[in-house]
Amino acid sequence: MRIALLGFGTVGKGVYEIIKKAKMQTQGLTVSRILIRSGKKKILPEMTDSIAEIINDDEVDVVVEAIGGIEPAHAYILEALNHQKHVVTANKAVIAKYLKEFTDVANKNHVKFYFEASVGGGIPWIQGLEKALRIDNVDCISGIFNGTSNFILDQMSKNNQSFAEVLSKAQKLGYAENDPSADIDGVDIANKLCISADIAYNIKISDRDRLPIFGIRNIRSEDVRYFERKGYLVKLLGLTHKLNNEYDYVVEPALMRKDSLEANTPGNYNLISLNGETIGKLDFFGQGAGMFPTANAVVQDILDIKENKQHLERNFDEKVQYDANIFQQDYVVRANFDVKDLFKDFDLIEEEQYVYVHQISVGKMHKLMDFVLEKDPRAFMAGLPDTIQKNVISNKEIVNQGVIA
Amino acid sequence: MRIALLGFGTVGKGVYEIIKKAKMQTQGLTVSRILIRSGKKKILPEMTDSIAEIINDDEVDVVVEAIGGIEPAHAYILEALNHQKHVVTANKAVIAKYLKEFTDVANKNHVKFYFEASVGGGIPWIQGLEKALRIDNVDCISGIFNGTSNFILDQMSKNNQSFAEVLSKAQKLGYAENDPSADIDGVDIANKLCISADIAYNIKISDRDRLPIFGIRNIRSEDVRYFERKGYLVKLLGLTHKLNNEYDYVVEPALMRKDSLEANTPGNYNLISLNGETIGKLDFFGQGAGMFPTANAVVQDILDIKENKQHLERNFDEKVQYDANIFQQDYVVRANFDVKDLFKDFDLIEEEQYVYVHQISVGKMHKLMDFVLEKDPRAFMAGLPDTIQKNVISNKEIVNQGVIA
User: Name one GO biological process term (chains A, B) (predicted).
Assistant: First the structure.
């Protein structure tokens, strides 16, 4: 089986190294071509800067897209699929946006589009989820989907350092990018949660701009210390529930009890969980990023293609609607002005510089928090997932009652 | 695909219920026969007390062995395989003993023998391990493989209750058998660890009587309290390492730091971990027992057979030898007499009624502990896995040095 790598950064190099391992040499895998940027030095005989050369090479069976970003990754993946090449990628941004298109084009061309490495790196999460779905409906997915933000929160907690200090350390260690926004503002988690929900509910999440996302950019040492005194660690969670034909979806800081698995997920590890009817709660823990764990997941997909192991078929066309208000929970807010009036419709408790808002829907909370941020751009909030309750009277039902009355 | 259930206890009933689910009805699975004990009332039309009737039914594709124990399970599985029926089972005792024989007979008859549910119940552990092995050598497996013993230790810790009180509660809740020996003395864990090591190292562990196993029957509330003051929770672990062509294997109580995943594995949950060269540490957490999680894993195997998804091929004939002395760690011992002379070859620290033995090999420790138990049958010990080190000079090397000198 002949493999072309698009890109030779961390993931591309990792795949190249793993395929060269003694144990893999019996499997008949070869990297036959490597796409590099034009102008870059061709240090290996397989290297080329022509995508056309790869796409038109009839001997290439699998294309591994390891460029990252939206374009040209999107265009190259489509070209490869349309030239009857299987495609494997770890690129969550492009998958979150185009999963349905890639799947449709792959099906039309009778080839595979596999992407285990895109969520949770080396953790066999996508297949774990797909396997659970063979038997169960999955009504909750949650977890720590991003190692960089978890590393920052973990270090803030363990070393009593400020957000800025730890971020700078993470950048030096190569755990965080120079522009850390995707990791700390929750965009990376939102992509991974979107892919997971697409599969779990067999839908295509579009219109993602309206989905509630709140990152950890504003967290302070004093917040971490205060929450620890209350028995909690702060974690940046991705969370989605399904209830009948509606789902919610949120990325936000969450206060996790010290004896929870989430609170005990250290450093740059990931923890991803699902809940199914018969399987119950199932958790996957491991390295969510890094050269070899991620490359391992890419090679697992290549082996599945070679062994003709079908992944779960999805057409992403179920009628399940997003609803920001099907679940409610308690939140805690820190702002430099009095927020009590803004949240006056809810039971409030004040403690030190924090206000606890009792049983507010996720959608409502994030909307009100936008107002808070307008007045105090450094304000912070966190949810308390232990207090999550199904919203007994959803907004829609209230409207209906109004009409009936 | 027509399925025969041997046995209609917890697992058999669970499989029956899951296959009747709406989501499963599209998969074309049917339970066509159920073997019950002769004399029992046939409450369902599929029921029979004749194994011959099932074995000779050419329309049965898959036999699910859910009787438990060694015989007649072993004989029935062989008969089914020899009649070209696929076999799925959750019966760890019979697999730990006969995995190689079942695999050989299944291969000869071109049918499958699958057993995901045997280790970790609903946790996709066997496949997770098999998948890791496609790319990596796995050099460490560890975990909390038994929910009953974990429930007991968790309750002792949380409620400050005695071992006997919690055991009695677990028996009332149905978490523990009337004869709890397999769970609390480590036999159940030993079976699951044996199956895992057979697969990981591609060996057949025989001569299991000599393998070191120490259960939790002797643990006291005061031990739990003392270890907690030191920052540890006690967990009953199964643990195996591989080093070159040798492996070790132990079931024993272990002191786990409060912020470890193991210490935060509550109630009757399981946590099973592997370490691979490229994948790193990968952990699986979930319900290790119970009707539906276990039955879910059985049905997953049935679906793999239906979809012709091959599991990893193993012939269990690698030349890897058991060595009780390749790793060493610290231990703590409680006995009602002075054990310092017994352990005089090791650095010792005494504290309260406990003696810490510094860097002793697992094999040596368990041998010396046999002497301790002869004098004090209520003595207790626990390992400190944080202190594990490769035995730099193994016994074999010492012998060789002697010969050379």
Answer: threonine biosynthetic process
Determine, for residues B310 and A307 on separate chains, whether the beta-carbon distance falls below 8 Å.
Answer: yes
CB contact under 8 A, B284 and A279: no
Q: Is A373 exposed, middle or buried (0-12, 13-18, 19+ CB in 10 A)?
A: middle
Q: Which helix (H) or strand (E) holds B23?
A: helix B22-25
| Domain A2-121+293-306 part of CATH 3.90.550.10 | no
Task: Identify the closest residue of chain B to A136 by CA–CA distance.
Answer: B23
Nearest to B296 among A128, A279, A296 (CB): A279
Tell me the CATH number for domain B125-289+326-390: 3.30.360.10
pLDDT at position A396 over 70: no
Those residues whose C-beta lies under 8 Å from the C-beta of residue B196, and which sit 6 or more positions away, are: B119, B125, B126, B129, B141, B238, B240, B272
Q: Which of B260, B278, B299 to mutate against chain A (most A CBs within 10 Å)?
A: B278
Token pair 């522009």: residue? A179
Give the 3-state secondary structure of residue B97.
helix
> In what order do the strands lie in the sheet containing B86-89?
B47-48, B30-35, B2-6, B62-65, B86-89, B113-114
Subunit contact B23:A135, Cβ cutoff 8 A: yes
Query: Distance between alpha carbon A71 and the CA centroid of its chain, in Å?
Result: 20
Residues 6+ apart with CB under 8 A from A328: A359, A360, A361, A362, A388, A389, A391
Q: Is the peptide bond before A212 cis (omega within 30 degrees of 0)?
A: no
Secondary structure (3-state) at A322:
strand
The yes-or-no answer to whether A2-121+293-306 and A125-289+323-390 have a common fold is no
Q: Are B74 and B97 in contact (CB under 8 A)?
A: yes
For chain B, give every domain's residue range: 2-119+293-306, 125-289+326-390
| Cβ atoms of residues A103 and A314 within 8 Å | yes
Cα–Cα distances in angstroms (integers) from residue B29 to residues A277, A376, B20, B116, in the given order: 19, 59, 9, 19
Segment A298-348, tens digit of pLDDT: 999 999 999 999 999 999 999 999 999 889 999 999 999 999 999 999 999
- In whole angstroms, what separates CA B375 from the centre of its chain? 30
Taking the CA of residue A231 and the nearest CA in chain B, the distance in Å comes to 13
Q: What pLDDT is stored for residue B391 in this prediction?
A: 65
The amino acid sitting at B246 is E
ipTM for this prediction: 0.89
**Is B78 at the interface with chain A, CB within 8 A?**
no
Rg of chain A in Å (alpha carbons)? 22
CATH domain B2-119+293-306 topology = Rossmann fold (3.40.50)
Strand partners, B217: none
| CB A241 within 8 Å of CB A200 | no
Instruction: Choose which CATH entry (3.30.360.10, 3.40.50.261, 3.40.50.2000, 1.10.620.20) describes domain A125-289+323-390.
Output: 3.30.360.10
* Cis-peptide into A72, omega within 30 deg: yes
Q: Kindly list the distances between the CA atom of residue A59 and the CA atoms of A6, A63, A84, A87, B371, in Å, as whole numbers in the listed order.
A: 16, 11, 11, 14, 67
CB contact under 8 A, B122 and A309: no
Nearest to A300 among B21, B135, B265 (CB): B135
Q: CA A208 to CA A194: how far, in whole Å?
A: 9
| CB contact set of A311 (below 8 Å; sequence gap of 6+) | A112, A114, A126, A127, A130, A304
User: Tens of pLDDT along B332-367?
Assistant: 999 999 999 999 999 999 999 999 999 999 999 999
